[in-house]
Design brief:
Elements lengths: L6 E6 L6 H16 L3 E5 L5 H12 L5 H25 L3 E5 L2 H11 L4 H12 L6 E6 L2 H7 L12 H17 L4 E5 L4 H15 L3 H14 L1
Parallel strand pairs: 1-3, 1-4, 2-3, 4-5
Helix pairs in contact: 1-8, 1-9, 2-3, 3-5, 4-5, 4-7
Amino acid sequence: MSNAPGYFVSFEGGDGVGKSTHVRLLGQWLGEATGREVVTTREPGGTELGVELRRLVMHGDDMDPRTEALLYAADRAHHVASVVRPALARGAIVVTDRYLDSSVAYQAGGRELGEEEVEGLSLWATGGLLPHVTVLLDLDPVVGAARLSGEPDRLERAGDDFHRRTRETFLRRAAADPRRWVVVDASAPLDDVQAQVRVDVAARLDLTPVVEEAVESTEERA
């Protein structure tokens, strides 16, 4: 999907599914298994500008859905131009916590804007860059909400119906594009979820032989 020599992996899912943890664990494992540079990042907040935009959209004053969608798209454009594309051009593996599918799920599904419009906005902002593989950590939103701690942000406060619609949108998009998406049950124990993520990502990126060689080398040293 990307013309760059690197690999691009995105994690998607509702709040409380464990994306940040699994981005970190997968990034560490891919670096060890492949010997490649791995860049782990997130949206919004993967750049200095993104940190400020994250504060505005997640902890700032209420805003209308179109404004929210435009701010996420602005963050994504800058993130891709300054972090993602340069890393891919170096041959790195980029693993991001959220990408354009989150905008479609949250602003189109959750906020009920036009799905094609929201997706088109992000594709324009990124120059059409899509991940090689997208991992959907799927979980009942009620269970995900119970895992959260601290003061809820604007999106976490949006209500049960909002989060039900976002989950349905994620699942619908995954079903429509099985070549890019893998769906993992995030209700399983963390180690089991990560093991499944590794197997699926390695297979989608055609890294299975490299990964098997790395595992065999580790076993021999042990």
